[in-house]
Amino acid sequence: MTIRIEFHADPGSFVRRLCDLSALGACLLFPLREPVVPALFGSLSIRHPTFDGPIRLRASSLGSERLPSSSSVWVRVLENIDFGHAFGGFG
Fold first, then answer.
1. Nearest CA-CA partner of 74 in 9, 18, 8
2. What is the rounded CA–CA span in Å between residue 72 and residue 91?
3. What angle do CA 64, 68, 71 make, to 5 degrees?
4. Cβ contacts of residue 43 below 8 Å, gap of 6+?
5. How many CB atoms are closer than 10 A to CB 33?
6. d(CA 11, CA 8)
7. Residue range 4-89, CATH number
8. What pLDDT does 1 receive?
9. Residues facing 20 on adjacent strands
10. How far is CA 5 from CA 16, 37, 68, in A?
């Protein structure tokens, strides 16, 4: 079971593996070839496979770190997440 995470920001959408999730934001793993840079503003979409519809939140990219085989990107959520009600209490 995988939580699907998408970060939508101009110039496109980035659908990648979730590394970490908190009330403040998320850490996503990207292939090295995708240039996700700080200060991209957009939305973060979080979808759990056992629940209907995703949670959509305003978000911005804060920074990234190049790893040997991928890049980790920190995305800050710009509004509150109520994990008590998200995904029926999942989280």
1. 18
2. 21
3. 25
4. 7, 8, 9, 56, 57, 58, 59
5. 7
6. 9
7. 2.40.10.220
8. 58
9. 27
10. 6, 17, 22
Exposed / middle / buried, residue 31 (Cβ in 10 Å: 0-12, 13-18, 19+): exposed
Task: Give the torsion sign (CA, 85, 88, 89, 91).
Answer: negative
Q: pLDDT per residue over 55-68, tens digit each?
A: 888 999 888 888 88
| Short-list 48, 40, 43, 52, CA closest to 18 | 48
pTM to 2 decimal places: 0.70
pLDDT at 90: 44
How confident is the model over 6-54, as pLDDT tens digits? Answer: 888 876 677 677 778 777 888 888 777 766 677 888 888 888 777 777 8
Pair of tokens at residue 51: 């629940």
Q: What confidence score (pLDDT) does residue 35 get?
A: 62
β-pair partners for 13: 8
